[in-house]
Amino acid sequence: MRLHVRAGRARSAVLGLAAAMVVAGACETARNPGGVQQDLIAPAITLSFTQDTQQIASGLSFSVTASDNLGLKDIRLTYSDPTIGTSDSVFTSTVTNYNQSVTVTFPPGSGAGGPITIIGRATDGAGNFTESTIVIFLSNVQALTVVLVTPSAGPPAPLASPGRNIVVAVHGQQVGGLQRVGFIVTPRSAVSDPTTPPTDSLIFIGTLPKDTTYTDTLTVSPSFTTGSFTVAGFAMDAGGRRVTTTPPVTVNILSVATDNTPPVVSHTIASRVEATDTITVRGIDPSAISWIGFRVDTVLNAAPPFTGITPLKFDSVNVGAANLTDVTQKLSLGLTTLTTFPKSVVVRGYACDLATARNCAYSQSSTVITSSARRAPARATTPSGGIDTVVVVAGRTFPLPLGGKIADAIFNANQNELYLTNPTRHRVEIFQVANSTFVQSGITFGVGVPWGIALWPRNTLGQVGSYGDSIVVADAGGTQLAIVDVRPTVRQLAWRQDLPNFLIETYKLLRIAGGTFEEITVHDVSDRPQYVATVCRTGGGTTCVPDSIYALYSTTPTASSTSPFAGKATLRMEKLINTANPALLFGHLFWEIGGTLASTTTDTLRIEEIRGKTSQVVLSACAGINVVLSSFGLGDSTYARNSGNFTHAFFGEGGNITTAFARVMAYDSRDPITGVGVLDNSCVIAGTGRTNLAAGEDHIDLGMSPGVQVSDFISNTGIRVTSIATNLNGLTNVVRADSIYYLDENLRLKATSCTLASDLTTCLTGAQGMDMNYLHDFSPGGSCTPTCGGGTNPNNRLLFAARPDAKIDVFDTFDGGQLLVGGQPFSIPIRDPIIGPFRVALDATGTGQLLFGIT
Questions:
Q1: How many whole angstroms from its chain centre is CA 752?
Q2: How distant, in Å, are the alpha carbons of 552, 699, 701, 819 from that of 673?
Q3: Mind listing the pLDDT tens digit for each residue in 800-817?
Q4: Could you count the other beta carbons within 10 Å of the beta carbon of residue 298?
Q5: CATH, domain 264-393, list 1.10.10, 1.20.120, 1.10.150, 2.60.40
Q6: Helices (H), 267-384
Q7: What are the tens digits of pLDDT across the range 552-595?
Q8: 2-139 maps to CATH 2.60.40.2550
């Protein structure tokens, strides 16, 4: 059952009832001689959510679970957004357990958005109550949001002193633009503004900013020696709508003559940190803060005065010139000397005041972020006593310039850049490894809805420089591939390759009333590309022939496709050539994966290719190819990857599938394509009833795995492929589904492994990313002389697989065994779980490996 609440003040309907009332015959005295026990047990309540960031169009969704030993009386939900009314569930019968899903919907044009605090209170019949609080970030591009960044409400509470300074910072955001951002101090006489001219807000005219922060430094009036004042932030959008932060933050005044008390120090840090992550340290003192910083120790029981103990890192900055009583500073941990991970360290904040005695202290309190939110402010936090043991893990994390979702990624060692498709933002992101930054502008023109991405082949050596400085991008929002020149001095669309329209048809010869009739049933399927791989054909050496560069791509299904292809993908090939001459273009629909023996359930296949105003039959009925049409289409997210030397490609049927088992396909570009330019009219014989409708060319790509080899090796039915990988030379192919499966180039299963849980007996699911060592040139089978699998260096025979618990497992692809260190399974610890594409690349020097993952 779901409780549906709309924005607006209203009480929910009465649902049932709580509170058991005990009645006993006894004298009414304070001593309770009758022995009736008062209910002192408070109810339990938990609010929970599946996503900490939710889109306003889908509403605000969470669950409420409550219980009481005798009976619940009331469940009340209150929200920090005043436009959402308080809701009460009042019970009129005995209810000891309550479980409800809640969805709050918003009207069109609602300005709600940002962090929404939800407080649930469960009350029993005796008046005992318990509260549970969650924060959900409501994503709404139309929302006018304002946040008072400083002063912070704490804890600890903000503090000011006569003659000293405080910083006020207000952040405003609205997609339509901001007219004004500022603050309100009550009483205003408590502070003065040394800014010339003094102001309490920024006012914008002309082009209005969508996102801005106003920061000002205020001086507490010398005469304001006791009491407190409040600070609130406000913002006004282009339409004149004004939002103020509530409740205002109270700043207490403390005046001291002789200060011998150290500052109040606190810090915030994540429980898992990268070497270059930040620690936020806050220092508060009526004499103002002079120095603020942190200390990191590897000796876990280290304590002041730290006699004989050398810290791993001690860093501080001088902030005395600002004369601030409340200072918050973000500092880089800078633990770059660490080389092994994970590493446990103890972290403390540190601050000194400006008093004559120079009082210093380490953190007395702290907050440890126990889970890292990806697209919203940190929520899950744990208070501690100022001394925190945190785990330093491998890697560095960088936010996307504009956010979004990454569909695919590829690394270009020539430019030392990683390219990531961001379909939600209609751009290709560029990450530069040399300076560890994203190119803010990205690539936007001509890429449409970028999905799959691949490099441009030059040769089949599989080295740095074996590909050019162009990328092939599948535009899932159109029927074309975008070829983009990524050289930093160019970075523009080279051309768009229009893709043909393939008609999948069945041919039947019907006998009616003594005559014959040819029936052709046409199935018009989606031509929009999704995932893409690239291969090339050579002239006998290793150099790719310029007119033999091919894109192998899966299609994005559409509901408009005719049955049985609605929601199903197909696999295709397109020669990449920048020409206006249709005669030089070539495409192929890989019907080979569905070919089977004729039976009563099969259909004779006919395929027609349409380019502009021209069309031709590229698979004739005379070829006698039979397919089971209902299983011919593929899952709606069919992945494509090419080998590092551009000779092979590998495909995995992901997304929603209708067949009992997900399938994989392999491709070898060294095999020829036959039948091009050759008319097949062998079945057009007088007296048979077959006319030239049955004739046409028969394009057969011998490089695609035939239907008899298309593998459905997965152990459990209904399991979809979540990712695939292929190695440098295409001899090892890996599929991730309910387990990790290792296949040879003929799609024969050779080994199986999985990401083990901590009990080392069960397999974890929920992660999808994986990739092989870039220099991996082994087969998963064959001789072990001199090395198992026949490759060059056994240290390259590795697969890296993301885990759902923020680690990366490492496996030997020959037998599927996990890499052991000291007799224990080895994993690489990282800060956040990898939830998107995962790529292993060879760096620009050709000697180092780079691991990229989307978290």
A1: 27
A2: 14, 7, 4, 41
A3: 999 999 999 999 999 999
A4: 17
A5: 2.60.40
A6: none
A7: 999 998 777 777 888 888 999 999 999 988 889 999 999 998 86
A8: yes
